[in-house]
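Quick one, tokens below. Sequence please?
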């Protein structure tokens, strides 16, 4: 099987290949219980995509490629294989909270372990 290059592209920048990339989609609804205890719900939006990415180990240059690509945080053009469409596509997403643990230092430069960022469809 051929390996896909540019597996994750953000704002036109090919990111280092994630060690793990989990996709999920969720629905946004407004719901409450009425006086009889029955649920009353209204679907606001269906199939909002979320992409959870993590990298086991990143050198400083790789880390900065990611950080610079997500600098504006909102309205990021994210391109990847979207499972529920069966093909590659681009979505407008925002970058969630980042987790950046330093694993060790090599020649005075940090090496990052288990860096994580989520991309959530806008």
């Amino acid at each position: 099987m051929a390996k896909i290059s540019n597996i994750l592209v953000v704002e036109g920048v090919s990111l280092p290949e994630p060690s793990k990339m989990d996709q999920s989609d969720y629905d946004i609804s407004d719901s409450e219980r009425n006086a009889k205890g029955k649920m009353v719900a209204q679907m606001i939006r269906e199939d909002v995509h979320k992409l959870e990415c993590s990298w086991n180990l990143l050198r400083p240059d790789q880390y900065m490629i990611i950080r610079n690509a997500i600098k504006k945080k909102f309205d990021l053009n994210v391109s990847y294989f979207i499972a529920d469409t069966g093909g590659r596509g681009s979505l407008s997403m925002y970058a969630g909270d980042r987790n950046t643990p330093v694993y060790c230092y090599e020649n005075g430069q940090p090496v990052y372990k288990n860096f994580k960022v989520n991309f959530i469809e806008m």
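The domain at 9-121 is CATH 2.40.30 (Elongation Factor Tu (Ef-tu); domain 3). The chain has one helix and eight strands.
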